[in-house]
Specification:
Layout: E1 4-8, E2 12-13, H1 20-38, E3 42-50, H2 54-62, H3 67-84, E4 91-94, H4 98-113, E5 117-127, E6 132-134, E7 153-162, H5 168-177, E8 182-183, H6 185-196, E9 202-203, E10 205-206, E11 222-223, H7 225-230, H8 232-235, H9 245-252, E12 257-262, H10 266-279, E13 286-291, E14 294-296, E15 299-300, H11 311-318, H12 320-330, E16 337-338, H13 341-371, H14 383-404, H15 408-429, H16 431-434, H17 441-462, H18 467-476, H19 512-522, H20 529-533, H21 539-543, E17 547-557, E18 565-571, E19 574-580, H22 588-591, E20 595-599, E21 605-607, E22 610-612, E23 615-616, E24 618-621, E25 624-627, E26 638-639
Parallel strand pairs: 1-3, 1-12, 2-3, 3-4, 8-13, 12-13, 14-16
Antiparallel strand pairs: 5-6, 5-7, 7-9, 10-11, 14-15, 17-18, 17-20, 17-26, 18-19, 20-23, 21-22, 24-25
The protein binds ligand ME8.
């Protein structure tokens, strides 16, 4: 059996915040890496950040930062997010790392010296967002990018080119001879037809911006961000540096190198990357696993569409394991998956609460009730017991098989065969009836042993994705200290002397309607085009708004609406009644005594039957809201 493996995610663009769609690759690779470690393999799991290029330069201008400040900020935020999500990587590479920059510059010069890169001139359509060039025939309507739909720029400049044509037939031959180089086969076929349709040499440098690695012999050129980025898989291992031990170990002397990528970046990994390796005489060691996208009902998640869902929002509400489970279970290898809050909650209730949570709590409570917490052993075995053992043995073997092939979704389904079978086994064996009669005490002990042992197996099988749930189950059955290996997992653990430990319910049932109502209430209000056109105001408009400090002297719930509060607010010498939609964030008594900012000249209105004269200003962000407070000035003071 192979004892090593090298797993990498693509490195994320440091221009934006990770949303649940692009967090998929990292979560899936983390589960895959944990699985491999559990199989006894020395595993190197790499992830990181793609920090150069025009996209980053433009994002930094918008954020009023230098590119370096922006990437430092995004890298630090992303590392924190991965830590919260339980991502156990071995190395986090950043393409602004000095070592990476130096090696990429050297490689570029080597390719140039070997005439695999040459100087020419380029004229074509470039999409800044995707950092990609497109030919006229590839473009969408009005010369938009065929991938993201944004406008492309017509670029014409002196450029370096990588010879792709020269290597096309060698690459085709490689793909044909290595059937499992690109998985699944649909993606492999896509690559084959792309190559067969004719490769053009690739433009690999730019002169119209400066944020990137400069070509040493011609520094007005910046190396194309994809050339820079792809080499991260080698520079992270020390390739080209004075210490390339990891490169020797995990690349050269290893047959289990996996790049896991989304379908949108297939071409870069299946064509440009192997061609560069061929040009450099570096063996192509990797296998590509290509996954689809997590879509929402209105397409791919994106900030500009306003449909992006961020991991922390789900984690804060439902916990890390719930999100990791959803992502790993939702996406079949190669195809797209869907995200909707409804789907998330239904899956959570059915698979985590009903199937797994119930099995654990029913088992533990019966061990407590019938054996005073002592885990019994099985002296007799019924046909039900033997059948459960067989299902457990099959689940181990099939889950392993699926995970070996990066079919994580199928692997989870195989484990759930055991979870569901064990629940059914409780109904079939009816322990509460066995418990009524002393004569069936041994049979009862056997049932509970089989259930606890199933829990142990399930806990090990789910540990790559349900990290804390797995630990809690093992703690509950007194096995948290055991170091299990998946390749040695078999039914029949000895529990003598072990007692169950008390744990809280693993998952709380969610009220679908309540949750959906919550998401409806925090949905960002996207302005209509007309509202956006009208949204700029001049000083004269602004000066019409009278803002004053008001002190809340009384506050109570609105009689007809759960989300509203009715406050009496003292503004100088007068007291006003104002209705505000803040009941989800403040209790009435918390507001009394606060000095807030009030729009004092807002026309009177009746809100759900209660008169309101003015408005309290608040700041809000997704599911958070805060009223603006004034510390020192008295009520009645004017704000300008
Ligand atoms: O592509 N569903 O970075 P990136 C599933 N910097 N996966 C998604 C997704 C979605 N909705 N959206 C994005 C880059 N992804 C380059 C990589 S590697 C040398 C350079 C996936 O931040 C996407 O397919 O745009 C990719 O695998 C990963 O998220 C990072 O995307």
């Amino acid at each position: 059996m192979c004892k090593k493996c090298y797993i990498s995610t693509p490195i994320y663009y440091a221009s934006g915040k990770v949303q649940i769609g692009n967090s998929y690759t990292t979560v899936a690779c983390d589960a895959f890496a944990r699985f491999n470690r559990l199989m006894g393999r020395t595993t190197f799991y790499l992830t990181g950040m793609d920090e150069h290029g025009q996209k980053i330069e433009e994002a930094s201008k918008k954020a009023n930062m230098t590119p370096q400040e922006l990437v430092d900020q995004v890298a630090s935020d992303t590392k924190k997010l991965w830590q919260t999500m339980g991502i156990d990587y071995d190395y986090f590479i950043r393409t602004t790392d000095k070592n990476h920059e130096e090696v990429v510059a050297k490689i570029f010069e080597r390719l140039l010296a070997n005439d695999d890169i040459y100087l020419g001139s380029y004229s074509g359509h470039y999409c800044v967002s995707c950092e990609s060039f497109f030919t006229k025939t590839q473009l969408g309507e009005n010369d938009t990018c065929p991938d993201c739909g944004k406008p492309t720029k017509l670029v014409s400049e002196e450029s370096y080119f990588l010879r792709l044509k020269k290597y096309a037939s060698r690459l085709l031959q490689y793909i044909n001879e290595h059937e499992d180089f690109i998985v699944p086969a649909t993606r492999r076929n896509e690559v084959i037809s792309f190559i067969e349709s004719g490769l053009e040499d690739l433009c690999v440098s730019r002169t119209s911006f400066s944020w990137g690695i400069k070509v040493p012999s011609n520094p007005k050129h910046v190396i194309y961000v994809w050339i820079d980025a792809l080499f991260n898989y080698l520079t992270a291992l020390g390739y080209g540096s004075s210490d390339d031990k990891l490169y020797q170990e995990f690349w050269l002397n290893n047959d289990h190198v996996y790049h896991v990528v989304g379908k949108d970046i297939l071409r870069f990994h299946a064509i440009y990357w192997p061609i560069m390796l061929m040009a450099l005489d570096i063996p192509i060691k990797f296998k590509l696993y290509v996954h689809g996208w997590i879509l929402t009902k209105d397409g791919k998640m994106s900030k500009s569409k306003g449909n992006a869902v961020y991991p922390m929002d789900l984690i804060n509400r439902y916990g890390v394991d719930a999100l990791r489970y959803y992502l790993t279970k939702e996406l079949p290898l190669g195809n797209d998956g869907l995200f909707s809050y409804e789907r998330f909650i239904l899956r959570y209730n059915a698979e985590l609460v009903n199937d797994l949570g119930n099995l654990v709590s029913r088992t533990l409570s019966m061990v407590n009730k019938y054996f005073d917490g002592q885990i019994p052993c099985a002296k007799v075995k019924t046909s039900y017991d033997l059948s459960l053992e067989q299902v457990a043995t099959d689940a181990i073997q099939k889950t392993i098989q699926c995970f070996e092939e990066f079919r994580l979704q199928d692997g989870i389904s195989e484990t759930w065969q055991l979870v569901r079978r064990a629940n059914k086994y409780i109904d079939e064996t009816a322990p509460w009836i066995l418990a009524k009669d002393e004569a069936t005490k041994d049979a009862l002990a056997s049932v509970l042993y089989h259930l606890v042992e199933s829990l142990r197996i399930i806990a090990v099988l789910v540990s790559p994705y349900l990290i804390s749930t797995s630990k809690k189950i093992l703690f509950a059955i007194d096995k948290e200290k055991a170091n299990y290996r998946l390749d040695q997992l078999a039914f029949g653990e000895d529990f003598s002397q072990a007692k169950v430990n008390k744990i809280d319910n693993l998952f709380q049932r969610l009220d679908l309607e309540k949750e959906l109502a919550y998401y409806e209430s925090i949905k960002p209000q996207t302005p209509t085009i007309q509202e956006e056109i009208q949204s700029t105001i001049n000083m004269e408009d602004f000066s019409k708004v009278v803002l004053k400090v008001g002190e809340i002297v009384k506050c109570e719930k609105h009689p007809n609406a759960d989300k509203l509060l009715v406050s009496q607010i003292k503004i100088g010498t007068q007291t006003r009644q104002i209705v505000s939609g803040i009941a989800n964030y403040y209790k009435p008594e918390e507001l009394i005594g606060k000095k807030v900012v009030v729009v004092a000249n807002l026309a009177k209105a009746k809100i759900r039957g209660v008169e309101s004269e003015g408005m309290i200003l608040c700041a809000s962000n997704n599911d958070q809201l805060e009223v603006l407070e004034i510390k020192n000035l008295p009520s009645g003071a004017i704000i300008k």
